[in-house]
Amino acid sequence: MNRLGKMIQKHIEPDDTVLDLGCGIMQATTDIVGVKENLKCKLIVGVELVSKYLDRIKDKYPTINTDVRNTNLFVDDSYDVVICTDVLEHLKLDDAIDLLKEMKRIARKKVVIYTPLLMESNEENVHDGWGMGENELQRHQCVVPHDALQDLGYEIALADIDGGNTFGVYTKDNKYQSDILPKNTTTSDLFGSHAGGSKIRGLARKLKRKVSSKSKENERSLKVAHKLWDDIGNKSLEETMEGICDGWDKKTFDNSDEFLMTEVNIQFKQSDKVLDLACGIGRACKWVAPKVKSYTGVDFSEGMIKKAKEYNKKFNNVTFTKNDGVTLPIEDDYFDTVFCELAYQHMIKDTQIKNTDEVFRVLKKGGKYYVQLPKLDFYKDDTYCWNESELAEHFKSYSTWKILETSYKFRAYFTVEAIK
After folding, report:
1. 255-419 CATH pick, 3.30.200.20, 3.40.50.150, 3.10.180.10, 3.40.390.30
2. Residues 6+ apart with CB under 8 A from 10
3. Residue 369: is it exposed, middle or buried by C-beta count within 10 angstroms (0-12/13-18/19+)?
4. In the sheet that 17-21 helps form, which strands lie side by side, from edge to edge?
5. How far apart are CA 77 and CA 109, in angstroms?
6. Ranges of each domain in the chain
7. What is the DSSP letter of 235?
8. What is the pTM of this model?
9. C-alpha to C-alpha distance for 106 and 16, rounded to whole angstroms
């Protein structure tokens, strides 16, 4: 069961029956791709039109070979939970809306959906995600608007570390209600937040976006943001990991790739001094510390810094310091490399620029800064997001900079390499 499966599991009880519409090879909920943890439920039935997918799972799970739109096969309230992940976007919008309605009819307790937030054309590549060849049914045809989901009674939040997908739950009876979003907070208040444990990240971002130029309001908002992250950092190490990356246990947190270390593949030398800005609990440290002379992690949360020291105690060339990143207690021209991953979306633009300028000060000449900046055309909020045309002004102090080509997953960010 992958990370999405763990998000779904929060809405399913061990004695529930589950209908998986458009199940594919059941990657999210079963162990067929090598993960040894299944969805905990009484029964799961897969519905899938593509026979080659069912061939992978039919010996393990009951399946129905039909189009997901053939919902007349199912009577009212016939399954406790109906799930539909990465399916709606492959239907025409009217068909997707009809399916959302039908799933409400079939489910006794809940409907759980997962679908992209934005339309991403795949006209030139309609292969599935499992290496099983071309499939025209994988073509993207629609995005279901959030207001349409809300009109149908679905509670929604954004999911994934880049906020690129909608995770939605329809609950038929209040006694089955789960905490998909923070208590006492409306969905509209949290547009742009993450689901589950990552809701803390979303709230922190929301606070930053609402900061005005008044220093007192800025100070109050920062105090609340500090408390949110400190509260996560003051839990056990395992609970902190789950709070940072929704649904991840310690094994997943330890073993999953770190984007800047694996895809961007930053190159380090043994003589390098490296700064991890907004380091959290120092998850990147294990990739960096063995390769360099020194690793320094900086974060504005005391709770995160405490956990970083605990998590990385085996390394003797690392230092973790509480600091806002704007006033680094470091001499000029000190670091060879600085990186900052998935942090600028929690800062208003002025603060981002101050961080970028402070990094310039502490970098050696020829040193490199790797950073991700949130895209305006994705998040639609110019208090903390950027157009590509604005980036030259952002990195004006640097001798050169460029946007790096990265994966589909990180379409919400510009990943930039800037050289002093």
Report:
1. 3.40.50.150
2. 178, 196, 247
3. buried
4. 63-65, 43-48, 17-21, 79-85, 107-116, 165-171, 155-159
5. 8
6. 3-180, 203-244, 255-419
7. S
8. 0.57
9. 14
User: What distance in Å separates the CA atoms of residue 198 and residue 245, rounded to the nearest whole number?
Assistant: 6
Q: In what order do the strands lie in the sheet with 335-340?
A: 318-322, 294-299, 273-277, 335-340, 363-374, 413-419, 400-403
SS3 readout for 173-234: CHHHCCCCCCCCCCCCCCCCCECHHHHHHHHHHHHHHCCCCCHHHHHHHHHHHHHHHHHHHC
Residue with tokens 């950027």: 386
Please compute the mean of the pLDDT values over residues 246-273 and round it to a whole number: 80
What would the pLDDT profile of 287-303 be if each residue is shown by its tens digit?
Answer: 999 999 999 999 988 88
In eight-state DSSP terms, residue 5 is: H
> Which CATH class, in words, describes the domain spanning 3-180?
alpha beta
CB 226 within 8 A of CB 217: no
CA 407 to chain centre: 14
State the amino acid at position 240 in one-letter form. Answer: T
